[in-house]
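Data card: per-record layout.
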Amino acid sequence: MASKTVAKDIITLRGSAAIVSEFFGYAANSILYNRGVYPEESFGKVKKYGLPLLLTQDEGVKSFIANLTAQLSEWLEAGKLQRIVLVIMSKSTNEVLERWNFSIETDNEVVETGVSREKSDKEIMREIQAIMRQIASSITYLPCLDEPCVFDVLAYTDKDVAAPLTWIESDPKLISNPQMVKLHSFDTKIHKVNTLVSYKNDDDDELDEQ
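The structure for this 210-residue chain is written out next.
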């Protein structure tokens, strides 16, 4: 009887940090495109996670996201990153309109001992696909952003982490009484990423005006 060999995908701490930081780079691009923060023509098509995605061609934004993902990977590998938030604000007033919140649960045993975990790359990709599809369909469940917007990224780290020179201490840029939509999560078995978007509740403005 022929034996069957089943290959398992070994996930290391460094590999998991790379998966999560790369995901955030693509997710940030997708959010900026789908929420209209930058013009449609400033994005180019690529294929990733088995999906057609769009990446910014703006050199300033490309550089910002590349530097960001490199720093996130370092923090993830050290087990120091708790949450990353992409904030969309009104360009004219700086009012916070949306917060895309990616909270991270880390397997501390892996950080402390260097053991690896097992999970299929295909399974991780399917989980990421589900999140990317939800971001792409965000126009169906989020209010239209009908004014010029800018974005910022907040990182929540352990208190003992020294902020790099290019980062500054920030207020949390919260939205008062927000509406929230919980999105899918993905798990490398070392880092679990839970996704939630909160947005300004326009109904409050209508009530205030009456």
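Known properties of this structure: The helical segments are 13-34, 59-77, 108-113, 121-136, 202-209. The mean pLDDT is 91.

See the next section for split statistics.
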